[in-house]
């Protein structure tokens, strides 16, 4: 059976900030059910790549095709602290034309926030805020979900809940791209790993059959980093 058509394609995508090159000719395909983990040091261009692919930043060169709706979970929550969890989701659902309002309550329940739905987000822990940010990104039931360090600052319980949701999305055929340093925690969710360094994607390889040590060794081989 031939592979499904990509829902997101990038070809020779570049991005500069003034004279500084941040992305240099990145090419990749993301298909339904893919869960691509981007690994690389701070400053490698992971966040910039996600923002460009999401359409939040304009590429300086190359082309991007998106065949489906894109959701983005940034490192910053993009939520309103003065509003409650329910009010935040209701507000963003209205921005989608109101059709997503029926998903507010199920998402609050799925992310373990139903009991705290009427509390202001400014009083939430980092884990609760992150779970709500993911719920916000899922309001429109996107075909593609891009996540920037989704597990940072989460306790074990919150991490397990987020990982379970990401696993469910992948099995439902959603395409995921995750930029993270937390390789060990994400091993059970992702299907491939992309090696990013100095704005260059040096390869995308299947993750099946590998452990963290093997992937770390391969990263050093591919990128030439000690």
Task: Describe the structure in your own words.
With 226 residues, the chain is α/β, with parallel strands linked by helices. 31% of the residues lie in helices and 26% in strands. It is built from 7 helices and 9 strands; from the N terminus they run βββαββαααβαβαββα. It has helices at 46-54, 85-95, 104-110, 126-137, 156-171, 183-186, 212-223; strands spanning 8-17, 20-30, 35-39, 61-66, 70-73, 144-148, 175-179, 192-197, 200-206. A 6-stranded mixed β-sheet has the order 5-6-7-3-8-9, sandwiched between helices. It has a 3-stranded antiparallel β-sheet with strand order 2-1-4, covered by helices on one side. A hairpin with a 2-residue loop joins β8 and β9 (200-206). α4 (126-137) packs parallel to α5 (156-171). The chain is globular. The mean pLDDT is 93.
User: What is the straight-line distance between the termini?
Assistant: 40 Å
Mean pLDDT: 93
Helix content: 25-40%
What's the main sheet like? 6 strands, mixed
How many helix segments? Answer: 7
Shape verdict: globular
Order of helices and strands, N to C? EEEHEEHHHEHEHEEH
Core attributes:
single chain, 226 residues, alpha/beta, six-stranded mixed beta sheet, three-stranded antiparallel beta sheet
Summarize the structure.
With 226 residues, this protein is an alpha/beta fold. 31% of the residues lie in helices and 26% in strands. It is globular, with a radius of gyration of 18 Å.
């Amino acid at each position: 059976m031939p592979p499904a058509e990509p829902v997101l394609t990038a070809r020779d995508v570049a991005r500069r900030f003034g004279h500084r090159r941040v992305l240099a000719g990145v090419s990749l395909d993301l298909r339904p059910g893919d869960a691509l983990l981007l690994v690389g040091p701070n400053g490698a261009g992971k966040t910039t790549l996600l923002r460009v692919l999401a359409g939040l930043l304009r590429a300086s060169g190359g082309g991007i095709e998106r065949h489906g709706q894109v959701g983005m979970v940034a490192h910053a929550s993009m939520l309103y602290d003065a509003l409650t969890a329910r009010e935040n989701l209701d507000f963003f659902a209205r921005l989608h034309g109101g059709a997503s309002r029926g998903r507010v309550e199920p998402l609050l329940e799925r992310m373990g926030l139903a009991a705290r739905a009427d509390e202001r987000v400014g009083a939430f822990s980092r884990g609760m805020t992150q779970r709500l940010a993911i719920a916000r990104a899922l309001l429109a039931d996107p075909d593609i979900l891009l996540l920037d360090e989704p597990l940072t600052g989460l306790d074990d319980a919150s991490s397990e809940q987020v990982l379970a949701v990401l696993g469910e999305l992948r099995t439902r055929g959603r395409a995921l791209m995750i930029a993270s340093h937390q390789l060990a925690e994400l091993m059970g969710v992702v299907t491939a790993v992309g090696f990013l360094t100095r704005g260059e994607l040096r390869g995308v390889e299947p993750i099946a059959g590998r452990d963290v040590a093997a992937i770390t060794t391969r990263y050093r081989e591919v990128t030439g980093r000690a």
